[in-house]
């Protein structure tokens, strides 16, 4: 069994990826400082997978802790999820974001080189495209100036990886540019755990349906889109998790140093209002929502061209928007039980 270090593995996408890794025959090792997650996720993962996952509590930029992990387990690859991700906070505290998001990547790369751990999958984001001029976006669509320090950390991290591979490092690296991850494990045992007021649409939708929030506001219905609300590419977190497994196994078969980027989305754009109506329909409930003014800085529409990941990694999403929204609601209900 190959050991894969997952930084930020107690978080939303990392925890679901741990499940998919185990299903594919890997052994995940998690390091997380629990700055945006809870330790009970580890118990839940054990319930789902029947496997006790080695867990290290700490900062993934802590070299002595990383060295200890490499001593305890022979690592064959790393998936680097750990980062801060609150766009709004990043504009108030940019250094916190650069230090954690960029600093942890650099520390991790130094650690990997020192221990000859060659394979890395990095969490990037469609935020690097900003508001694109053409749709859907391919990996060759030019990246735009970042809208926030958070977005810029993803661009800077991608640039660091490009420079590293140019320098003839032995590493083999894939950046996955996630579109909008939603949904939860179908068991309802793990899912997204936003702290405070959710930044993302779907946790706001589920919390409104659960009565935690009084009302959902749709920011604008007068954009040039099918129903006037913004368009995103919503991808089920289990499909996203599977993309990491495919990326890892692709890297394992590479004999030379390597870097590439892949979009991970469904290839379809859905409007915010479509999400609301699909959520109501599939879960048979009514959502209290209102139309509000446009929100400054919102990208109007973006969705992925997924041809590259389909063809090169052989990855295709299996879940529909309705599946995702059913699983999101199932998770929210279990959270409030
Ligand atoms: N969720 C999204 O919408 C989205 C979209 C695009 C990209 N991403 C990226 O995907 C990755 C995972 O996102 P997520 O939604 O699972 O976020 P998350 O906050 O749920 O998970 C991140 C985890 O990393 C941990 N962490 C943060 N800094 C750490 C550090 N220095 N050392 C150890 N642990 C640390 C947190 O405690 C948390 O458990 C992030 O890099 C994020 O920027 C997320």
TrEMBL record:
One term of GO molecular function: UDP-glucose 4-epimerase activity
One Pfam family named in its UniProt record: GDP_Man_Dehyd
One annotated GO biological process: galactose metabolic process
Needed co-factor(s): NAD(+)
EC number annotated for this UniProt entry: 5.1.3.2
Catalysis: reaction(s): UDP-alpha-D-glucose = UDP-alpha-D-galactose
Keyword tags: Carbohydrate metabolism, Isomerase, NAD
Annotated pathway: Carbohydrate metabolism; galactose metabolism
Coiled-coil stretches noted in the UniProt entry, renumbered to this chain: none
Enzyme class, broadest EC rank: isomerase
GO-annotated cellular components: cytosol
Superkingdom in the source lineage: Bacteria
NAD(P)-binding domain segment(s): 5-326
Quaternary data: Homodimer.
Family (UniProt): Belongs to the NAD(P)-dependent epimerase/dehydratase family.
PANTHER family: UDP-GLUCOSE 4-EPIMERASE
The protein's name in its UniProt record: UDP-glucose 4-epimerase
Species in which this protein is naturally found: Algoriphagus kandeliae
